[in-house]
Design brief:
Radius of gyration: 23 Å
CATH superfamily of the largest domain: P-loop containing nucleotide triphosphate hydrolases
Protein name: AAA family ATPase
Order of helices and strands: HEHEHHEHEHEHHHHHHHH
Number of domains: 2
Strand order of the largest sheet: 2-3-4-1-5
Shape: elongated
Strand content: 5-15%
Number of strands: 5
Organism: Qipengyuania vulgaris
Low-confidence stretches: none
Pfam family, one: DNA_pol3_delta2
GO biological process, one term: DNA-templated DNA replication
Number of helices: 14
Length: 315
């Protein structure tokens, strides 16, 4: 089954398989949640022409590993363990050692790196050597949510396949099918925050941000002279220090402000400055663990400023 937005990617991949010159490295680029990793696994199996069930010995998938030796021991013992924040050089070198041997079941092998844009610098430099002199029969699929974070020398050695955001109408149909219990307000908030990513939209639905989205839009449009809307917004966010949910709230606020910027008929610079403040808050939240209530008030104040800036720009 071809996922939404994958038609062009599959056409490029299949045409390359059928040609006499298959490029050895591919960069799968697009927002997180568009199914790039799913495509990579299916594309690897299509290249190997395999019907082997479960893990395939000639598909080597490189992703986040244990954070440290203690977490690695927990993994080996079958216990829950904490993941590292990036892909480490030791992981790349372990795969490179595997590449010195022949493929197990045929003449081809596929290395999937997901996400490649989260490789540490030393890991990227190590991978570059394999991309410059790829072992015969080895193909690389690099999944990247932010391709600009990759070394230019890595990007230049890859054929790029872009995965486009899903149009709103198609997104709504997908959400109604995959999350039939979600109401219209929740779907609307999820679609706004996800910006065309089905996977992200489904994650946002879990946070039930429909009421928060309605309040954010009211604040932008109406202002909040008596702080009552900001108080209600803080109430919808809650008091629990739930970092994933708070990040989703910040992403939602950024998306709503981006809508305002896109629809602005005047000078958008003040709106862009306010959006930059939201971006700053989003980056600082995991580190500083802001109080949820105070964070809600801060988001509301920035949205009030955005509404005022929009009015000034249209004068």
């Amino acid at each position: 089954m071809t996922l939404a937005g994958h038609t062009d990617a599959w056409e490029a991949w299949r045409n390359s398989i059928e040609s006499s010159r298959m490029h050895h490295a591919w960069l799968l680029a697009g927002k997180k949640g568009l199914g790039k990793a799913t495509f990579a696994q299916a594309a690897a199996r299509a290249l190997l022409q395999t019907d082997v069930a479960g893990d395939h010995p000639d598909i080597l998938t490189l992703s986040y590993g244990p954070k440290n030796k203690e977490e690695a021991k927990k993994r080996d013992d079958g216990k829950p363990y904490e993941l590292s924040r990036g892909i480490k050089v030791d992981q790349v070198r372990e795969v490179q050692r595997r590449l010195t041997t022949r493929p197990t079941l045929g003449s081809k092998r596929v290395v999937i790196i997901d996400p490649a844009d989260d490789m540490e610098v030393s890991a990227s430099n190590a991978l570059l050597k394999s991309l410059e002199e790829p072992p015969q029969g080895t193909y690389f699929l690099l999944v990247a949510h932010s391709p600009a974070r990759l070394l230019p020398t890595i990007r230049s050695r890859c054929r790029t396949v872009r995965f486009p955001p899903i149009p709103r109408e198609q997104m709504d149909a997908l959400l109604q099918d995959l999350a039939p219990k979600a109401d219209i307000a929740s779907r609307d908030a999820a679609m706004a925050a996800a910006a065309g990513s089905p996977g992200a939209a489904l994650s946002f639905l879990d946070f039930d941000l429909g009421k928060s989205a309605q309040l954010m839009r009211r604040i932008v449009e109406e202002g909040d002279r008596d702080f009552s809307l900001r108080g209600q917004l803080a109430g919808t966010i809650g008091s629990r220090q739930d970092i994933p949910r708070l990040q989703a709230v910040l992403d939602l606020a950024r998306a709503i402000l981006a809508e305002k910027i896109d629809g602005s008929a005047g000078d958008p610079r003040n709106l862009v400055d306010t959006h930059a403040e939201l971006v700053r808050l989003t980056g600082e939240q995991p580190t500083y663990n802001f109080d949820p209530g105070l964070l809600g008030m801060e988001i509301g104040t920035l949205l009030v400023q955005a509404g005022a800036a929009s009015e000034r720009g249209n004068v």
